[in-house]
Amino acid sequence: MTNVLSDAPVTSLRQRMIEDMNMRRFTRKTQFDYVRHVARFATYLGRPPDTATVEELRQFQVEQREAGIGIPTMNSIVSALRFFFTHTIDRPDLSRKLYTVKNPRSLPIVLSREEVVLLLGATNCLKHKAALSVAYGAGLRAAEVTMLKVRDVDSKRMLLRVERGKGGRYRNALLPADLLALLREWWTVGRKQGVMHADGWLFPGMHYLKPLSTRQLHRIVVDAAEAAGIKKRVGPHTLRHSFATHLLEDGVDIRIIQALLGHANLETTAFYTTVATRTVRAVISPLDKLTTLLEAQVAPPG
């Protein structure tokens, strides 16, 4: 895959946009996507994007829609162009002509606790098992798992430090005792293999100086699910969904779950109530209470 942040010719506009994103602590993935989307618009124009007109912006969106570009991708393109026009070239008048489309949110796929046990048990590689256990045990996003460093494991406070998560936010995540024991086991094995270093990545990739990629992590989850006989379509985010849903079913306050997940809005976390089946089953329907009242009314006097 071409690295648009380093491999493409660095124009003054591109460099300025990258600097603006660095100032706001955007993740590398966000920067990659934003630069790529603006480059897509420049290709459409056939000239630098700062020369675009309102009509060209409108026509670009129309043509992207007609080309069958998905709603999430189109909204991501709009976000990138808004950033470019508002912050990089100071043309907020153009950014106001960009429109996002509401994307109907589908129910997240959640594994049962038994399925999580099967998934983790199907991984023969200790590093892979530890990475998937972090995704589920701490509820981290794929990129947050892969970017963990050894120093982010705080065994004294039983926390995982997540640096520059989504939106560039920092937070503390759970570090369960069983997960800490597994990570210590991986540390011992990794040191013997020569891939683990005190200042290095918690989950090194093919080379110890580079972290495991999110694509590799996704492949690990898919392979484990297949080996475990799980038919659901799963990925790293499935483990995060399962973490949140299982906490909700256990009665953990939703605002605590919001903080653990790093959600900016409570509404995002509340969406898990739609798949928390144990919570739903625990609710007593008003109809059941009516039935109880009716039975009491018709019961013969004692």
From TrEMBL:
Coiled coil: none annotated. PROSITE patterns: TYR_RECOMBINASE. GO terms for biological process: DNA integration; DNA recombination. The keyword DNA-binding applies. Keywords: DNA integration, DNA recombination, DNA-binding. It holds the Pfam family Phage_int_SAM_4. Residues 106-285 form the Tyr recombinase domain. One of its GO terms (molecular function) is DNA binding. SUPFAM superfamilies: DNA breaking-rejoining enzymes. Belongs to the 'phage' integrase family. This is Integrase. The lineage of its organism: Bacteria, Pseudomonadati, Pseudomonadota, Alphaproteobacteria, Sphingomonadales.
